[in-house]
Amino acid sequence: MARSDNRSGALFSEAQQVIPGGVNSPVRAFKGVGGKPVFFQSALGAYVKDVDGNELIDYVGSWGPMILGHNHPDVVAAVREQALKGLSFGAPTALETELALKVRQLFPSMELLRMVNSGTEATMSAIRLARGFTGRDRIVKFEGCYHGHSDSLLVKAGSGALTLGVPSSPGVPEALAENTITLTFNDLDSVEETFREAGSEIACIIVEPVAGNMNCIPPVPGFLQGLRRICDEHEALLIFDEVMTGFRVALGGAQAHYDIKPDLTTLGKIIGGGLPVGAFGGRRDVMKHLAPLGPVYQAGTLSGNPLAMAAGLATLNNIVQPGFHDDLTDKAEQLLKGIRHQADLAGIPLRTVQAGGMFGLFFTEQETVERFDQVMACDSELYGRFFHAMLDEGIYLAPSAFEAGFISAAHGDQEIEQTVAAAGRAFQSLLNQ
Ligand code: PMP
Fold first, then answer.
1. Binding site membership of 268 for ligand 1 (Cβ less than 6 Å)
2. CATH 3.90.1150.10 domain span(s) along the chain
3. Residue 269 designated active-site
4. Where in the chain is the domain with CATH 3.40.640.10?
5. Going by DSSP bridges, is the β-strand pair 138-142/40-44 parallel, antiparallel, or unpaired?
6. What is the pLDDT of residues 78-136, one digit of tens each?
7. Hey, whose CA ends up nearest to atom 1 of ligand 1?
8. For a substitution probing ligand 1, which of 151, 213, 270, 406 has the most ligand atoms within 8 Å of its CB?
9. Could you say which protein family the record assigns here (predicted)?
10. pTM of the entire structure?
11. Ligand 1 centre and the CA of 149: distance in Å?
């Protein structure tokens, strides 16, 4: 099926004249799948509409925030109502406390929390706080996990850094990168060993409790529990980066789902309902080290922005409805079951992974995909061809084999059936290429 893309192509050429690579965030450039990015003009529910008039069923959902679907009426109404009262004050508002209380109710480990403007700011601030609190400089992260683009965390990173083949970025001073120890996700032995050697120098472990930036990899049983124990033994802080998993894997995030209490948590995406918001928080004694209570500095002109708070609150007020996450999980299951079935029919080896409302597609014959090297052994070129075949069918998947997929409450049976049927035709077209 031919999809028109003339207008997208023209806009991309124009954008490249003024924006590096034509995009404001690298994965959008389609480097991971080849071809030219699709420019969007509007969205509603499970659908996005591109500038050439194509309607696409969307499994990216702005990379996670649109858990209610696009332009949910409650969210739009809340933003509109607030916009009439003021766009930004740089002074406290009741909305900030209301959202903070709501978040704490869902994430009780976040005894105190602070709003920021992105996931990057949340993780960067949490790392600084962990260092300030412990008086230690070194941090542990896992290869293929992505925690935003701050210097300390851009070492062997996932997401766009991985897609573009620059997991450790030029521009990050060696002296800083040396303080980031990168280990293998789901390999507890390497964590034990590292802490045996250098435990007293390590401020924290930061981890995506379900890794969503090297495709989608849940923790193996005992991994997160082991991290908790090791941090306790060495008086290091455990930071769960729930920017992606928060409110998505379960209402209370991965920490509720796996029943682990981190010292600090970072949030983003859903908490802003599509507007730029992040948050970090955790143990009261740790958070009290933050300015103005303590010496660790962190600030933001637009932090707690009223429009963003209003959008976040309207989103959270919707997803707390009973059964919301069960439904979301069922939908993702239904989708993956259908896609697997179609792959089987075509004889294409495909593994799928699911954690609540997020999922991963791995083109591989490997029995399991639990570690970074196993992700890298999957056929990302085949994913790229599948991506384009699906795009031609009107289905918008993540434009990289290293990103998780997201489903929303607005995806109904019809959209899922349509997607599964499209996958069947897409798989067949791969065989014919
Ligand atoms: N942490 C995780 C787990 C993420 O997935 C992301 C972004 N995908 C970030 C941090 C950074 O968030 P942002 O892009 O809002 O800066």
1. yes
2. 6-63+322-432
3. yes
4. 73-319
5. unpaired
6. 999 999 999 999 999 999 999 999 999 999 999 999 999 999 999 999 999 999 999 99
7. 147
8. 213
9. Belongs to the class-III pyridoxal-phosphate-dependent aminotransferase family. HemL subfamily.
10. 0.98
11. 8
3-state secondary structure 175-231: HHHCCEEEECCCCHHHHHHHHHHHHHHEEEEEECCCECCCCCECCCCCHHHHHHHHH
CATH level 2 (architecture), domain 6-63+322-432: Alpha-Beta Complex (3.90)
Residues 73-319, CATH architecture: 3-Layer(aba) Sandwich (3.40)
Q: Is the CB of 208 under 6 A from ligand 1?
A: yes
For the stretch 320-323, contacts whose Cβ atoms lie closer than 8 Å and that sit 24 or more positions apart, written own/partner, are: 320/106, 320/251
The dihedral formed by the CA atoms of 274, 165, 388 and 414, expressed in degrees to the nearest 10: -40
Q: Is 241 a catalytic residue?
A: yes
* Å from CA of 345 to ligand 1 middle: 36
Tokens coding 10: 């023209």
Catalytic residue among 269, 331, 383, 396, which? 269
* Among candidate residues 306, 282, 250, the one with its CA nearest the CA of residue 112: 282
Which pair of structure tokens corresponds to residue 109?
Answer: 């480990």
- H and E: helices and strands count for the chain: 15, 14
- Catalytic residue, chosen from 5, 58, 187, 241, is 241
Which two three-digit tokens encode residue 283?
């143990």
At residue 363, the pLDDT reads: 98
Asked whether the beta carbons of 155 and 182 are under 8 A apart, the reply is: yes
Q: What is the pLDDT of residue 157?
A: 85
Three-class SS state of 405: strand
pLDDT tens digits along 373-395: 999 999 999 999 999 999 999 99
